[in-house]
Amino acid sequence: MPKRNQRPAFDFDDCVYGIHAVEEALRANEPLRAIHVNAARGGDPLLRRILTTATERKIAVRMEPRAFFERLPFKAHQGVVAVTPPFPYVALPELLRRAPPGQRMFVLLDHLTDPHNVGAIARTAEATGASGMVLPERRSAGINATVRKAAAGATAYLPVARVGSLAGAIRMLKEAGVWAVGADASEGAVDLAKADLNRDLALVIGAEGEGLGTLIKRECDYLVRIPMRGHVASLNASVAAAVLLYETLRQRECSLRP
After folding, report:
1. Which domain holds residue 54?
2. CB 183 within 8 Å of CB 207
């Protein structure tokens, strides 16, 4: 048995933790290297389902003492952690190739460093049928274990590109016929109720408080503003993204009705 203060021999970023997230990783046939399960919870019906699937797929299962999970940097693991290869980002041109023109919807995040926000946005993006998500390489959370947990399995299905320049990515998307629409609270922005989102779209979301960078605003075709009637000045980034994504979905579904 490893010593109590010994770190588990895998990169904490390269794992999926929590029952639902691990189940989704299995359902999506992610190439899991091993699954660690709290031996004290081996009889839990939800965990037994994971163990059965892992055994069928010949994935190594390791029953661990409680001390193993106490050494992990995350607490909401529910007694199960799956070790994965590094997250498989796709190149931006590949992201475009995977999404046929007509109903493309990409989500671009401008320097969101909170992995819980990134994961929550990924979850909503996948739920609303987004074609993919784009993250900058600098000053941004990548797809790590916390993002995967917050996404509740969505990152197993949602393609994600990581780019050196978000402005450059916007230009490439625009050249491919995608409209770039930034979320911004400034007076010059179009009210969300009046914005036409029923087109090939890249929704650009900025960090809470900071908002979109000046260069990113200039690259957007136009900006949209979510109406605020109360006293608070802004919404959490993941909430703002959800409002925009579901308004986009609503407009698209309304256009398909006879």
Report:
1. 15-83
2. no
